[in-house]
Amino acid sequence: MAKIISVELLEIPDKIHVGVNNTDITVLTTIDFHEMDIKGNVEYCLHLFVYDVHGKIDPPLIISNWDESYVISIQSSLDRRDDFLGQTTVMFKACKRQVTIATPMILQLGSLSRRGIYLTRQLEIFATATPAVGRISKWSMPYETQVYH
Which ranges of the chain have pLDDT less than 70? Predict the structure, then answer.
């Protein structure tokens, strides 16, 4: 099993103009692999989720299914709920002991929700990597049935 060593946000502007649709950022993720990953040349899917955090971080619930994982935030405080800003996925293989992946992303940082006043954005990236051989999860579609008394 691999281990994420670090997740860094690079190339973020100091100031963001309201209404500017696209802001380029780069996320740098460093991953350390177990010897068995390297021997098996195990393929992974790296998922990056970007949030504007308001107060305490909402803990994530991860639904992992290799190439279609997603995160559900669970509101943990009376602070405002974190704003989800975007996500991306990157496929890679465990070919050496440590890999650093630079992932460019385009976010709409100048678009504001109507829920609050914005003076700053506190961006944080949640990174999760799912191996091709590992746990899988998925919710069913909602089904409705009638209850009779």
Answer: 13, 15-20, 58, 65-67, 70, 73-81, 110-119, 135-140, 145, 147, 149
Q: Which residues contact 143 (CB under 8 A, 6 or more apart)?
A: none
Placement of tokens 């860094």 in the chain: 8
| Residue whose entry in the numeric block shows the structure tokens 């692999």 | 33
Could you tell me the pTM of the whole model? 0.75
SS3 of residue 99 by DSSP: strand
Residue the block writes with tokens 């961006």:
123
Give the span between the Cα atoms of 39 and 41, in whole angstroms.
6
Closest CA to 52 of 78, 15, 81: 81
Structure tokens at 56: 């305490």
